Amino acid sequence: MVRLTKRFDIIIVVLFVLITLTIWGFMMPLTERFFDYGTSMHSLGQITGLIGTVLFALSLLLTTKLKFVENTSSGLDKTYKLHHIIGAISFMVLLFHPILLVVKFIPDNWALAATYLWPSSSWAVNFGIISLVSMIVLLVLTFYVKLNYKSWKISHTYLGWAFVIACLHIFLITTDISRSNLLKAWMIFVCAIGLLSFFYGSYFKNLLKKQFKYSVEDVKKSGPFTTIIMKPKNKEMKYKAGQFIFVKFDAEDFKESHPFTIASAPNNKKEIRLVIKSLGDYTSKINELPKGATATIDGPYGKFNFMKENKDQIWIAGGVGVTPFLSFAQSLNDNNKFKKKIDMYYCTRDEKEQIYADELKSVANKNKNFNLIEFCASTKGQINAELIDKTLKIKDKAIFLCGPPQMMNSLKSQFLKAGVKKRNIFMEDFGFK
Amino acid sequence: MKIKTYVTIILVVFCAALLVIFSAGFTQKSMLEKQASTELQIRQDYIVDRQQNCTVVNIMLDNQTIMTVETNASSATTSTQPVTTVTTPKTNTTTTTTTPKTTTVVKPKPKPKPVTRAS
User: Fold this and answer.
1) What distance lies between CA A190 and its chain's CA centroid?
2) Which of A219, A249, A254, B109 lies deepest, with the highest CB count within 10 Å?
3) pLDDT tens, A192-228?
4) CA A44, CA A269: separation in Å to the nearest integer?
5) CA distance A173 to chain B (A)
6) Is B118 on the interface with A (CB under 8 A)?
7) DSSP conformational letter for A203
């Protein structure tokens, strides 16, 4: 769940950067560091190398799905988003590192500048070049090539190896790290975080982390949606309404782990329901999943939880973004303690896509505090804050959003303009790639 | 702007900078190497002349004689002549000749110090 003002993960990232800069800054007077053009460029080159490494290490930590990492943010979906952002910043900063180091030779000695960046007999330097080139190739694949989920995941895993090679560069080359014991100790700590995160996340997580075994009981396709019902093989997983899981199946073509939101209520311990929309190569054939297949579940994750907000609420679901709200609504049936008024907008392009409207209506019939508003863009146009405000009083209400990123971002900015406080807006991002 | 836009801008700047550094750097490097090979040619010409017991030293640049230094062979056996120094401005090469033993010394340019790297 997103408390837009509560982001300890960002504070931690900033703190790591500041500690690194402070240690580096106290190694020698800054007047010496920035004495002239040459020393200034060299110093900036060093700073970019250090900051880039710190951000790279932390971006690897954010992919581990460890509970304490998720607890520093407002949910794993936000952790992944931060990973995406600081990974990109790390990449951009590291691109400046070699350029700034050679700029001091220009314009007097272009030959020396070019030789400096070219592979040589010095492996300490070569490791840096190999790491940077690998990063460039892998991130170009990530940002510009539309890979399928499996290829994307593999290419992303190799980024961890680029970090391993970068560590060799950092500790073998003669630099401030080799000259200051304090900076060396700090960078060993930072690199250890990155390395442990990478090896744990990529190779040991499945061995070390508790996972749940379920069996696939039913697979139903209705329109673009596939509903999967799973039952526990041994111990059932405890979860809260609105949380999501990573699932892989022991069936051909479905062995890759994918994130899906749970669409069933937590009190229903007998089964877990997933509602999956056909969006990519994997989800388009999920309806072919054989019954009886074993599902391995990693989770639950996420903090998109309406129960924490003790005030009237507006839920806005866009398309397949209805899944956490199905879980919310079902839990209203089970939990009559929640007495606040809830108005839910179920937004789709047309009526055909309102597949779960009947289920939500039945909840509304049983619970007088829950009101369903079916909203089709084909007849009413795009949903917007002004329209919602005319029908309901949006100020001082908690607003929960889940749907396509463009829709959520647009609505969020509209609500903020309309005077809704940031702390009252909660969004669930389900785009992990 | 999206983070992807920033990444694209920085990546383009990086590639452009790298292109400029490598093209200018390796052009300058090949020029320096050519200059070094010219100096080597001067030394080789001298050695050939000396083997033939000749007192003429041809200084060449790009296979063209740009200067000829001639010493007095007869005086070479009778008296010690002061050192004669000829400087070729184009190549910055200094040729020193002494007459008694018709010794000509071509001072090679000092080798550049190896580049030390640090980041």
Assistant:
1) 21
2) A249
3) 999 999 999 888 887 888 889 999 999 998 888 899 9
4) 57
5) 7
6) yes
7) I
